[in-house]
Amino acid sequence: MTNQRVVGIETEYGIAIDPDSEVYTQPDFRQSPESLSVVAAQAVRSWQASLRTDGQAIGWDWEGEDPLQDLRGTRLDRASADPTMLTDDPQRFAPASPGVETAAEDTFSVQELVGQSSPMLTNVVLTNGGRFYVDHAHPEYSTPEVLTARDAVVWDVAGEYVARRAMSVASSYGSPIVLYKNNTDSKGWSYGSHENYLLARDVPFELLRDCLVPFLVTRPVICGAGRVGIGKNSETCGFQMSQRADFVGDLVGLQTAFNRPIVNTRDESHASSKWRRLHVINGDANRFPGSILAKVAASRAWLAAAEVAWRVSHKAPPVEGLFLECDPVAAGWQVSHDIDFQTTLQCADGIERSALEWQWAAANTVADFLHSQDRDVLLADALADALTWVDTVRMLREDPVAAAQRVEWVAKRTIFQALSRRIPGGWSSDKLAALDIQWADLRPGLSPVDKLRAKGHVEEVAPATDINLAATQPPAGTRAKVRGEAVAHRKDLVAASWTALVVRVGRDRLQRISLRDPFSNQALTS
């Protein structure tokens, strides 16, 4: 089944103390991002504990974590790895960037909420089958595994509900934190929104790399979150499509927190050896559900084409003419900065295309290719994903009003550009920079996104009732259902991970139950 594809999204949230709170004005108050992130994670842990009859939150099982295995068939020696890559240590947080020491001792007491702050004690497995934890000095939410682009939207947006619960619980304990769903503070720091796609391991890495590079370089056109400021530190005034693009500086690599690559090669499949998990790290965290849908659907369709082509003919899909003949890293910056599609990219077929025209050609080529294949090697979802992709690009080319309801950067640009013409200083105005941060504010009613949604100007992929339910309930069809239901109901559960449940079988004995099959709803004894 080519497009029976497990998908998951991880979002690192920006975090700060509520600037309107009394705590914010205290001169001796310490507010390192790591300390605040610990508060957020412990708040979620406290909330999740309240959902169980025994009042005990379920922690993470670290067995099998291996962030140093590379898709290219090698493994980075631990002694040679940058500390930012060591995310598998249950006793110590990985730093946010090279040269930045962790500050586990710089936590502050919020009554009983924050007692200890190691990764082991700030990781919590959620009743919806997902995970909330501290990663690189940021609170992070990982969705459970889902099977459709729509469900990816539902459980990703459900993370915003989880974030609001974190803020509410933390505030009740005297720590008024604010979480932001964005990717940069525009002062040189970037934090990720990573996508994960399960695909067959027999597809050669080289083929995946060659196909992925031009696709990911141009993808912000259909799903960028938009950003005020150009350059890592917003050195140039203006607006760009992507919050993440300026922080991508390499073609291929294992690293995720420095010199970030277009194609990340971390090889933790969290499944059996026949599967590979593609870890995409250069996307934006989106507030618009339609942008999440476009992002995931287009990526699934692109990967489906690669898998089908390899299975049928052992070669790439008919997109080689769209491979780039220019520097892909520089092209990624150019695409994000070129909000009017005035510049072009040299392609292997000799045609120069704007990023929008590249996406149009790619979406239609993939849709036609998938439509031509036998249905016995192709699930209907692949075609539906391709049509979502085609429809999104068509909106951008022909219907700007509809595009502004689905594609986040288009809506943000429309609003901010109008403001820039009225506010003194235009794009250099501090007010616009502050509004850019406010756009990502997850406090109810404070973001311009909430106001747009109230007016019906944001495309809704799923009803609010589905999203609210997804904050505490797992999706059907994957092992997330087993995990989430175990977290909610099994009294013998001690810990869990993507691939296992750890249960108590006696006073001093534990048993690990396998969840290696991502598609199984049945837990298997190891």
From TrEMBL:
Q: Which UniProt keywords apply?
A: Proteasome
InterPro entries xrefs: Pup_ligase/deamidase
> Please, one GO biological process term?
modification-dependent protein catabolic process
Molecular function GO labels: ATP binding; hydrolase activity, acting on carbon-nitrogen (but not peptide) bonds, in linear amides; peptidase activity
Q: Where is this region: Disordered?
A: 82-101
* UniProt GO cellular component terms: proteasome complex
Instruction: List the PANTHER family hit by this protein, alphabetically.
Output: PUP DEAMIDASE/DEPUPYLASE, PUP DEAMIDASE_DEPUPYLASE
This chain belongs to the protein called Putative proteasome accessory factor PafA2
Which organism encodes this protein? Mobiluncus curtisii ATCC 51333
Q: What is the lineage of its organism?
A: Bacteria, Bacillati, Actinomycetota, Actinomycetes, Actinomycetales
